[in-house]
Fold this protein.
Amino acid sequence: MSEIMGWIETIVAQGVRRPGYPADDRVAAWAADLFTGFGLQGVRLAPVELPYWKPVRATLTAGEVEVAAFALPYTRARARVTAPLSREVVPGHIVVPEYTFTELPQAALRDAATSVHDPEGAFDDLVQVLPFQLDYLDVIGGALEGGAAGFAGALTGVPWETRDYYVPYDAVHRDLPAVWLSGADARRILALMDEGPVTGVLDVESETGQATSHNVIGTLPGRSDKWVIIGSHHDAPWASAVEDASGVALVLAAAKHWASVPEEERPHNLLFLLTAGHMAHAAGTRAFIEENRALLPDVVLQLHLEHAARQCVGVDGELVPTDDPEPRWWFTTREPRLEKLVHDALVAEDLRRSFVLPPDLFSPMPPTDGAFFHPEGVPLVHFLAAPMYLFDSADTLDKVHEPSLEPLTRAAIRIVEGTAGWV
């Protein structure tokens, strides 16, 4: 466990790893060096072109009150807008809507699952706080359509004090000045609005452009001519630990294990993939698929590993880690032998609070970095957790559920071993 956690610490220490940022480039190069050191073959950095975004400043002023803000990624890069403030969308106004994360009763999700491993019965009463509202990728859609002059989302319903909310993360340009306000700052603004009409000044500046990032790829030969792809992504919204330094570390652990196993004992050829640009609409995954389309018919499993997350609770405006893991989602292709293989691995490693879920439960594709493998018909198992701090700078080292790192690694190994003989 100490080695896996050490990798996570190394990644986090590089700094903010958004697509195209130097810290993300350093992590990709470092991971490639580790792949080579493990003994993987054909290790390479495959270029991925993607949009770049860097916030410079963002403030909202109302009367004598000026508060710092965080710009919504890829919204209008430069603007200084003076307009009335309103709680609802009004043409020509800056809308200040209050924002609350979605709560998901785990008993309801259990009813939709293929299987669960919940020996404690935690899912009977547990309510998970998701890191978004269900329209999170279209959060300013109503403001755009309604002719608003700007958007200042008030994070008053978030269980801790923050403005550092990296949503939406699809890298789609939306031509509206838009920011997030912390709960405390938003309440100051909203209190002024409740006293009477208020004119606000929304001031934002960001840098935008194109950048080249890289997928990290390495392979190991096996006794079959088929392939298993084991992947995650190396970029993140912040210097994030769970998202997805933990996923990178799980892939590194798998790569190191399989490199130590003789070729004749590896069930298939193995390809290890750390993608770029998850926070840019999975740019790296999409690029890999386009460049390796001829390989896909020979892939018996695409295993994606993301987010070894610790559950937290909000207490007095702070996030407090608990001893429990965040509920674990294992999106698995609707194939009985694969679903059973995953369930048996979860039980064997006692990965409690786990759901085996259909890939299309929430949307046509699973909400993972490897989602675009699903419409290609590639059999998949995608591990993911969705803690409420996932897109926030609060995703720090203490949020990693360290006790899960080794069991997750062993479960991933069991799942790959279980595909022996599959064609």
Remarks:
- The domain at 2-52+210-417 is CATH 3.40.630.10 (Aminopeptidase).
- DSSP finds nine helices and 20 strands in the chain.
- The chain has a mean pLDDT of 97.
